Fold:
Amino acid sequence: MPAPHNPFKAALANNQPQIGCWMCFGETVAAELMSTTGFDWLVVDGEHGPNDLRSITDQVRALEPTNSHAVVRVPIGEDWVLKQVLDAGAQTVLVPMVDTSAQAEAIVRACRYAPDGVRGMGGYGARVTQFGAIQDYGTTANAEICVLVQAETRTAIENLDDILAVEGVDGVFIGPADLSADMGFPGQPEAPEVQAVIKNAITRIAAAGKAPGILTFSMQAAKTYLDLGATFVAVGIDTVVLAQAARALSKDAKALIK
Structure:
């Protein structure tokens, strides 16, 4: 039996836009709730969310039988971190702060079994192989792992063409918050100077045959990015969605008091 098919990777390869949302609660029940909302992909955030390997594993497990694909953002692109989340069952990884093609190459190799990479074969005792039931996993997994890297600095933008040339990188996610800060516009990703760089990057990524991705809270911006060729677009963060809805509800209810 081969490794499970990765529908998210296939959709990106076929230029089928995928709409997603960030998950920062770090809780399985929140992931289960989010899986009922219709998003194509959901980020289990191991960089800024309060997650560890166990909570990431639980959320991946919760999303597996649903139509919302788990994209696991690791805190850093180290071999041992990638090895652990892949063995836990992640099929798609999102790696922050990738500034060079050398970094991208190392990340791809960490996600692939030999002879194409350096991923350890210990997955045969882990849940990714159903604890040994998927006997052909080692010979078929490489083709199903989706590697997404984040370009979120001026250095990354300068090296974007080299990063895009790395075989095995399926997509490049533009990090608007960090990029805007690095450009001298902290907290202002909508600044015209930042938007010009973002739009140019999306166009270049798409032209290179890779999948462009981004996070935005604006439907207008999301439409603009999709029209430019972005194929995985996140439109919110679960914690922010709850906070905004709860604040509005509280305000409306208190307004009833005369």
Notes: The first strand starts at residue 18 and ends at 23. Residues 7-254 form a domain with the TIM Barrel fold (CATH 3.20.20.60). Residues 238-254 form the longest helix (17 residues). The chain has one domain: 7-254.
